[in-house]
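In the design runs reported in the main text, the only information available to the sequence generator was the tokenized backbone. The following block is the verbatim input for one such run; it is reproduced so that readers can re-run the procedure and compare outputs position by position.
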């Protein structure tokens, strides 16, 4: 028997007056589904979220919600009304007012003081507080619009684990591909006004979307061909069999209406280029014995402690670390926009940095996009050695003519980020410094930015919590690893993570060996393994291999795109079995490690 949905949208639509933003939307949401909602900026993702919550009325269609179903929504730009403590704000809506400790725990995990007042929060802080409020209620349906914006990697990974364990439904808008891959077991794609859904891991999205676009192109090409043939016939005269011919003309008119409806909404393609890097020397900059400290209510905190580095032309470096650890402070010192407490930075010959700062301080909020790009007047910019009209250049970054003359303060976060990219790419540069450039951008724009950065022939320095973006753009990382230490690592984020995981396992094994060596033997010395230990050494590797094979087979079944739709209960059972199997595997690996360490210690003492 099919699982009853928590919520259903039937044939719903949203009309903007001059066009339908969404139409003929059919969607059912079930418990256990974690749906990645994907589409270009402006495609209607946030509007769909509001249709699901019921905060926006549709122009057509129906919404049904199962009885006693609770829905929580984190909007992209949360608004906190009134002044209260963060703990009180997060705890609002909890059934038991005495459970405020739950609100405090979530806030502390997100790096926020529960006693702090909601007044004066930054945009990023308001988002984190609103995310905590949505999570603490543990609703049946949780809707999250860009939850990872302004979160650091440790918090993102904690959030992944929390959301993966939830039993309710999740609908998620995010530009973070790694986040979507870790969580998604289904996809909703809004493209050209149409909504399509499919079950399966997010890794399948690209192939699925490409196949749909190819099918649409073939279908529209056939429709265009038929319209062309009917149009040629209509021009040849209709004097004979007038009645039948009039019917054929009406059919031609209907075909044209169908073509306009189905292919009339064409997503504008974004164009982006940095142009070639200007001249300059082989050494971009050299940091010598840099130390940076800040004063806090608890005393002096060391952000950077005796950091040394040489950045050469062509280096592609990522900077990793939790929020507040000092990443942006280090960047400003390297760019000579701030002074270190000790040490100095020597910049190379002909250095021309282009700096994307995450706070967007380079954008005058009272100016317009036009005057941001042409501050001295005029109507043209020079990009990649070519002069371009400012309107044409702004259209490349998906600005319509109306927004080109509006105040920057009226633009969305994504639009301001695109404008800042347009500004820095239009200036001479040979050193791109990007501090959280992917915040508020959609996946398609991030993909384009990644391609532009990958093709850039200058030097790259990127601060980002977007793991996938880092893996695709950098070849080494500088990792903040506590007490002001910054350690260089080769490769991207996953290479760094694999190395840290391996080091942690090595440290754990070494610690256990040292502890075992220090233990004094009790009773008579036993210089050989017991029968139980010998049996375990023979048995455990086989059991570990069996479990690994079972887990691989089960995960292959779970990747079947139709399995969940046909048998949601069976899908959930196998998913639960995989979780238990992984726990058993970890226990057996730990047991084998302990016996193997005992065997090695006996050999060392023999």
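Verbatim output:
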């Amino acid at each position: 028997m099919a699982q009853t949905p928590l919520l259903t949208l039937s044939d719903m639509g949203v009309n903007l007056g001059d066009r339908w933003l969404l139409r003929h939307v059919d969607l059912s949401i079930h418990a256990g589904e974690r749906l990645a909602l994907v589409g270009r900026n402006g495609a209607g993702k946030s509007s769909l979220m509001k249709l699901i919550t019921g905060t926006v009325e549709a122009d057509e269609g129906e919404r049904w919600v199962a009885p006693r179903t609770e829905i929580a929504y984190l909007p992209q730009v949360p608004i906190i009304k009134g002044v209260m403590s963060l703990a009180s704000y997060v705890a609002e809506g909890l059934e038991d007012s005495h459970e405020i400790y739950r609100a405090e725990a979530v806030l502390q995990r997100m790096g926020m003081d529960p006693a702090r007042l909601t007044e004066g929060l930054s945009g990023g802080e308001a988002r984190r507080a609103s995310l905590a409020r949505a999570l603490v209620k543990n609703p049946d349906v949780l809707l999250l619009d860009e939850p990872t914006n302004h979160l650091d990697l440790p918090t993102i990974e904690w959030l992944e684990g929390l959301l993966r364990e939830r039993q309710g439904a999740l609908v998620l808008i995010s530009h973070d591909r790694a986040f979507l891959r870790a969580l998604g077991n289904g996809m909703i794609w809004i493209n050209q006004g149409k909504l399509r859904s499919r079950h399966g891991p997010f890794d399948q999205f690209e192939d699925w979307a490409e196949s749909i676009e190819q099918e649409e192109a073939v279908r529209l090409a056939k429709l265009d061909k038929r319209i062309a043939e009917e149009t040629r016939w209509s021009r040849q005269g209709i004097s004979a069999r007038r009645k039948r011919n009039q019917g054929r003309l009406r059919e031609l008119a209907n075909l044209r209406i169908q073509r306009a409806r189905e292919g009339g909404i064409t997503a504008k393609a974004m164009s982006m280029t940095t142009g070639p890097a200007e001249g300059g020397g082989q050494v971009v900059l050299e940091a010598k014995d840099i130390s940076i400290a800040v004063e806090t209510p608890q005393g002096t905190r060391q952000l950077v402690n005796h950091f040394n580095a040489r950045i050469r032309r062509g280096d592609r470096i990522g900077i990793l670390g939790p929020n507040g650890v000092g990443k942006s402070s280090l960047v400003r010192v390297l760019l000579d926009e701030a002074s270190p407490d000790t040490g100095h930075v020597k910049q190379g010959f002909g250095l021309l940095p282009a700096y994307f700062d995450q706070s967007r301080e380079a954008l005058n909020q009272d100016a317009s996009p036009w005057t941001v790009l042409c501050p001295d007047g005029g109507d043209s910019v020079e990009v990649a050695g070519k002069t371009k009209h400012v309107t044409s250049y702004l259209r490349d970054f998906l600005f319509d003519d109306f927004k080109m003359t509006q105040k920057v303060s009226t633009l969305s976060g994504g639009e301001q980020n695109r404008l800042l990219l347009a500004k820095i790419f239009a200036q001479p540069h040979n050193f791109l410094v990007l501090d959280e450039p992917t915040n508020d951008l959609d996946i398609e724009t991030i993909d384009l930015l990644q391609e532009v950065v990958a093709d850039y022939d200058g030097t790259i320095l990127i601060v980002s919590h977007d793991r996938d973006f880092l893996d695709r753009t950098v070849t080494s990382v500088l990792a903040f690893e506590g007490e002001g230490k910054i350690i260089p690592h080769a490769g991207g984020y996953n290479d760094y993570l694999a190395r840290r995981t391996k080091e942690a396992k090595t440290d754990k094994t070494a610690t256990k060996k040292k502890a075992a060596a220090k233990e004094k033997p009790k009773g008579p010395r036993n210089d050989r393994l017991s029968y139980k230990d010998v049996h375990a050494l023979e048995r455990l590797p086989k059991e570990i291999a069996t479990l690994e094979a079972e887990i691989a087979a089960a995960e292959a079944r779970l990747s079947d795109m139709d399995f969940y739709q046909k048998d949601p209960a069976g899908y959930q059972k196998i998913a639960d079995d995989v979780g238990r199997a992984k726990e058993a595997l970890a226990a057996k690996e730990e047991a084998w490690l302990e016996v193997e360490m005992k065997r090695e210690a006996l050999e060392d003492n023999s």
